[in-house]
Task: structure prediction
Amino acid sequence: MSIRIIGTGSALPAKSVTNEDLAKLVETSDEWIRERTGIAGRHISTGETVAELSAAACSRALEDAGRTAEEVDLLLVATCSPECGVPCVACQVQGMIGAAHAVAFDLNAACSGFLFALHTAWAYMEAGICRNALIVGAEVLSKLVDWTDRGTCILFGDGAGAVFAEYGGKEKFYFVQHSDGSKGGALTCDTRQLKNPYVEMPMEAPWIRMDGREIFAFAVRRVPEGIEEVLGKAGMTADDVDLFVLHQANYRIIEGIAKRLKQDAEKFPVNLDRVGNMSSAAIPVLLDELKRAGRLKSGMNIVLSGFGAGLTWGACVMKV
Ligand code: COA
Result:
């Protein structure tokens, strides 16, 4: 037995922001952003929270699966941009959608978060701990972005995606996961400073800081390695794969990965032109768009791969 993804859903904030809009805030241009990243627009929260976007994506995934919130056993939210430390986003979502019988908790592996959450849910189901799971990737990164830093504010967007998976079915899922904390300084975001009656630490600006070139080089090297590794576990080669659903960070990164795997770029669907980099929400939102567009056909071999801060990266082979 294995697991099956039987429903997907997503939600984006109502406000869409173009590159031209950003050129009014920082010294940049539509041409520069498109050429270096492939991004033309993104959705930015004007009030929607991570929990609200997650709840909307979950409701759509449950509707797509033909299941009710009361039936959910496990509710996992991958996010690095929760509104508060406690309660976790998953518990907030549980309350909003009425998933009264679910166990709910969050997981943070930045842009690999959805993949790591899917792997966790798979392991829970394989171990018999639960029979089904709602797995969510959700971010409101716009509150972590320094809107005066043109090197980062052009990259990110807000949104949420969810899948509903159940135990059952014959097609096996294969996973690999990796982390390298020694390189964590390449992409950071501070939260609160230590401030108590005994100490006050100097405050770093609590915004996303990134060495773009280092992250670029890491992604183009490590992601193809991870994909080859998971394909090896599944006894497959890249030629056997119908679609590579990758984290949507930068179109040039995706092109570089396709080249290393010697695969046609057509096998790598993209939506980053419309939504930017939504960190852990990128893969489930893209999966939902592909499913609703009828591009996920029964029997297809799909590779998912996420990579990002930590550093973290991972890949999964699954059939739909
Ligand atoms: N508009 C115009 N110019 C910009 C700019 C912007 N938005 N951002 C940076 N520049 C400038 C820089 O200041 C620099 O100018 P200088 O040469 O006068 O110093 C020049 O463009 C080149 O900057 P650089 O950072 O070397 O550009 P790059 O080709 O590496 O592209 C990124 C920058 C961020 C697009 C690219 O490194 C990238 O996408 N990296 C991966 C980031 C990522 O995906 N992070 C998330 C991972 S999950």
Notes: The pocket of coenzyme A is lined by residues 28, 32-33, 36-37, 111, 150-151, 154, 210, 212-213, 215-216, 249-250, 277, 308 (CB under 6 Å).
